[in-house]
Amino acid sequence: xxxxxxxxxxxxxxxxxxxxxxxxxxxMEAVIVKKPWFFGEKGVDQKIISTGTIWGVTSSEIKLIxxxxxxxxxxxxxxxxxxxxxxxFNMTLVFRYQKGKSAVLIENFGVDxxxxxxxxxxxxxxxxxxxxxxxxxxxxxxxxxxxxELKKDIIFGVKDLLKERAIPVNLIDITISKITPPxxxxxxxxxxxxxxxxxxxxKLRKKAEEVSAEADKAYMTKMNMTPREYIKMKxxxxxxxxxxxxxxxxxxxxxxxxxxxxxxxxxx
Length: 268
Fold this sequence. Notes:
By secondary structure, this protein is of the alpha+beta class. 53% of the residues lie in helices and 22% in strands. It is elongated, with a radius of gyration of 40 Å.
């Protein structure tokens, strides 16, 4: 009797050692990759398990594939426009694996998303580089419709590549970040604009000084004053204004029980 129990226990333990259980949730697909220890057929089982619980031997691998959308990020650096301005931008591509094609995906392309880098990235980069070379920087930078046209071209190109290479993946959408020139070029443009503003400011100040001088000259003529008399009058006006400001400060200090040091310089 003990021998029978021992044999039964050994069989039970052996069963749980060589058999494993996997639950397939909604929105997932499972594929069994056969890897027998001694004999039997190897490779990807073409049967797709959509939902429920599956059992497999320990030597086999059960791969789970999510059918939910996922993102792949890509960067484009120093692409030259038609007017020879280098630009940078990032792109987010939203994909989803095709339902019922998980076995094909695993067998031919794997599940680590290297299919994008190996099969799509280079032709996409080449296509975008050619497209950017045909466009003026200001058109790309200031007109959103140009970016939308670029986006449509990329979507069309990616879908065509997926179909051509028989990759069981659907492209849902792409997002292109704001296209910008390199930071160094942006800084140069900012400095140029600042310099333009300085020049414009100096022009306006010079114009104001000329207008003021003309007004002074007209006043002198009207009042029949000599330049010396006019300068003296202006000095008196300035001194009077200083005195007025200082008296206000003194009165304010008295009202607030404070103190203030005043230097009165009438000048000559």
